[in-house]
Amino acid sequence: MRYKMEELVPIVGKLAEKYTAFESTSISYEKAEQLMGAVLYSIHELETEEWESAVLAGGTVSAQQAYEMGAPYVEKKTKAALDLYNQILPEFVCYGNKCLYDTFVKGLPEFFRWYDIKFEPQNTILTLDYPVLKDISAYTGIDKIYEFIKCIRLEQIFFSKFPTGYVEGVLRGYNRFYKDMAENLCEIMLISVIGHVLAMKPLLEQKFDKVDYLRMQQIFGQNSLEDVKKILEKAVAAFIQEYYESDRGVLEYLNESVEGIAVRLKNAADYGTLSHMFCTDCVGERNGNP
Amino acid sequence: MDKDWMVLLQQQNQLSKMMEVNRATERYGLSLSEQDAKMILAERNQALQRERRVEFGEGIAPQIIYEFCDSDFIEQDSYADTIIRLQEIFYMYKNEMQDEISDEELLHFMKEQFETVCFGDLDYLTGTCLAIFSQAIRAGYRGYRASEGRGEYGAFDEVKRWDYDLYLEMLKELCWR
């Protein structure tokens, strides 16, 4: 932030007057902090725009102007996020997963209903319980929601190439209570795809056998973590090139989780428990649990 | 976040505005010296800090003075002290009423009770009238919006007040007997 408090305070004062509809000459500390947050958020929106950054770097834009120019960007982004949401919704599939359904279908409309562009744009309102692969924790307000919707769009593109029954089968194989899980479904699917690519097994054959696990065991056991990560990235890239016409968005999104998957697969291979990665229910079965 | 900016927000010079109100209050025999005005503003800052509030624009003190200057229960001797106290009560009850009530509505309510129910007793105003009314507002009462805070207390008053009709009836009876 390049503005001094002396420049920002009058903007907060004016905003506070609008907030109280000129009916109150004072507000609580909490409300004042909220309004200061709104001013900073709008200015930040302006700073994230490339051409505007150039103007700001020249030092010709006052804090008041920056706020007035930034505020419409919040509105513009909200409209863009809503358009994207409406675009995804008709074809949206959640495979019965409550967490994804509640977050996307039930939660997001409430966000758009209650989001306050002018007086509290920094409030994300939702906890966004469904975990996406991209780290969006640094974002707040509409920035976070927009990033979340973009992630869901990429996940939906990824899922669109698989028949519904097939995805459900993979998810059920991973955890028979997958409908109640609060885990990323895309990652589970990706692990299965990686397994198929590495075991050179057709995707139609859902279950892995001992030979497949041995083949994977060899790959992960003989390579360092860094190499395993490279192998997985190559496998994902090859899969995306084959089925998604090298969609960069989907590739970059899936690559967000490759490092984590590499660590987990390498660790599983080191301890001879690779099968648990592809079928967590098998753990209970082996232990004699229901 | 650093709270210094909140101090900046309320550091606008309001002394001249405070002195200006003397023109309106002089006809009621009330006026503030520059020292009184400074004292009111200093107490205002403390009250705001205590109540965790930030004030912007002209501030509430001039409005309190305009509202209460024609009161039967404010005299020059205690004028500044009364304004300071009213100021504290005002901020306290803005919080208690969760900012649901506007400045004007709250001031109308305070003035009306100060004159007609409390007869100048600020302890009664804050401890009884405002306490009961704020409780109603917190419970969701919004009738004051239509009345601008006037004639509201009767519905919530827990004490049986002087019955003027009964008084007149008795007076007629006694005089005409």
Coarse morphology of chain B: globular
| Portion in strands of chain A | under 5%
Backbone shape of chain A: elongated
Structural class of chain A: mainly alpha
Weakly predicted, low-confidence segments of chain B:
none
Descriptive report:
The complex is a heterodimer of chains A (290) and B (177). Chain A is mainly alpha-helical and 290 residues long. Among the domains of chain A are: 5-70, no CATH class; 176-290, no CATH class. Helices cover 68% and strands 1% of the residues of chain A. Chain A is built from 13 helices and 1 strand. Chain A has helices at 5-19, 29-48, 50-57, 63-88, 98-114, 141-160, 164-174, 185-199, 210-222, 225-243, 248-270, 274-278, 281-286, and one strand spanning 26-28. The longest helix of chain A is centred in the N-terminal third of the chain and has 26 residues, at 63-88. The termini of chain A are far apart. The model of chain A is unreliable at 282-290 (pLDDT under 50). Chain B is globular, with a radius of gyration of 19 Å. Chain B has 2 domains: 1-96; 97-177. Chain B has helices at residues 4-9, 15-20, 22-25, 34-50, 61-68, 79-96, 103-116, 122-138, 144-147, 164-176, and one strand at 53-55. The mean pLDDT of chain B is 90. Chain B has 10 helices and 1 strand; from the N terminus they run H-H-H-H-E-H-H-H-H-H-H. Chain B has 177 residues and is an all-alpha fold. Chain A binds chain B through residues 5-6, 8-9, 12-13, 16-17, 20, 23-33, 36, and chain B through 1-6, 8-9, 48, 52-60, 63, 91, 94-95, 99, 102-104. Strand 1 (26-28) of chain A pairs antiparallel with strand 1 of chain B.
